[in-house]
Structure formats: structure tokens, C-alpha cells
Amino acid sequence: MARKKIIAGNWKMNMTPSEAVKLVAELEPLVKNDDVDVVYCVPAIDIVPVVEAVKGSNVQVGAENMYFEESGAYTGEISAAMLVDAGVKYVIIGHSERRDYFKEDDALLNKKVKKAISAGLTPILCCGESLEQREMGVTMDWIRFQIKSDLVDVTADQVKDIVIAYEPIWAIGTGKTATTEQAEEVCKGIRECIAQMYDQATADAVRIQYGGSVNAGNAAELFAQPNIDGGLVGGASLKADFGKIVCY
Ligand code: PEP
After folding, report:
1. Which end of the chain is more exposed for a tag (fewer CB within 10 A), N or C?
2. pLDDT by residue (tens digit) across 60-83?
3. Which bin fits 15, alpha (ψ -120 to 50), beta or left (φ > 0)?
4. What is the pLDDT of residues 146-158, one digit of tens each?
5. Which residue in the list 64, 95, 97, 104 is annotated as catalytic?
6. Which atom of ligand 1 sits closest to the CA of residue 172?
7. 181 flagged as catalytic
């Protein structure tokens, strides 16, 4: 069965609640494409108003982060149950900004992935290499290490429903997109890694996005690759261009 493309916006730390509602209304007529899953991953404080604002549309809401504990004394954190209750369907886990600025390591991310799945959320699990790693020729070794560590004790049945986002760190927010060949090569490598860890059917089911300076001009070519099942889009998700990416 063909994999349905999934195109998700990562709003990062942008948009106040009132700005968020305005943006949803502006994008509403532009993002109608039933052939793809459309997701807005929004700051925690925007979740409730954005869930309300997208009601009745083809858009689903994601969070940008969550904590793995059930509840308790974890000041400032948000649980999977809170996200589910608010109407969230997806959660970004392991974005390179969280790995880098907030020192989230793979052991923590593995706990988050398992908690998200058990709560009924779909993780969008990010991985990607730095420029130094690419130049050293260790890109695929690094990504295999991330994927294997982040999916410890996650079953084949669970993995087939998650989304993996390949995001080369050097391409995020830089305007420097990986070439179509580079993006496809790594997404294919991720699928091979999943096939080795589980089986071919699981690898064929999992959706793998590319992220890193995706824009209205490069989306169609990237998404036409056999192993790229859509995109995780930062900067361009905050403007009308996101409609062009969704309707590529
Ligand atoms: C991202 O934040 O996940 C991202 C890919 O950002 P940008 O599209 O701005 O490079």
C-alpha cells in the first residue's frame, strides 16, 4: 500500500495565541489537500486555541515536545496525557534544537517515544547529522545510531505508525537545503535500517520526512523521491508558502 505523505509545520517558538489563530485562518483555504496529512506542530500555549481553530478542517495538531513521566513534580513540563486530552495527535521528539540547546540525549528521547506511543500520540522522531559529521563521512553511521537508540524496546507494530524526520542540522533554518539526492539517500538508508531492525513490511510502512529549508520551490522534487514521504517544515510553515508546499 502506498504511504500517505505527511507535511508538518514546525512553528518553533513563534506565534502568540492570537497570532496563531490568525495564521490558521489565513492558511485555511491554502492547505486543502486530502491526499496528504497536514499537521501544525505549535508551541504548547497555542495548542488549545489552534485545536479549536482547525476544527472541521483537514489539519491536525502536533506538539513540539513532551515529557515522559505520567504526572507530578516536573515544573514546566507537559505530559502525553495532557496533549491527548487537548486534542493533539502528533508530537515532535528529538528535534536537533532540543538535542543541542536542551541537551536531550537518546536515552531520554527513547523514553519520550515510548510514552508518546503508549498514550496514543504519533511521534515525529527527528534525526540528522551535523556538517562536521557529513564532511567526515559518518552521516549514516550517526543516523543509524540515533534511530537504534531512540527505538529501543519499540515493537514493529508500533514503529510502522511513527513518523521519522530526517533533518540534516546544517540545513535547518539556514536556507541551505540538502540536494534531492542527499535527502533521498539518507531517507533510503533510514528505511534500510528499520528493515534490518524489524522487517521489510515495517520499513515499507513507516513514513520518513525530509526537513531542512523546505520551501515552495523545492518541495515537489523532494517529495517525489521514493523514500521521502513528506516534509517537516520550519520557517516556511509560518507563511502562505506553506499552502504551496502542502499542495506541491
Ligand atoms: C525545522 O525546524 O524542523 C526545520 C526544518 O526548519 P526550516 O524548514 O526552517 O529549515
Report:
1. N
2. 999 999 999 999 999 999 999 999
3. left
4. 999 999 999 999 9
5. 95
6. 10
7. no
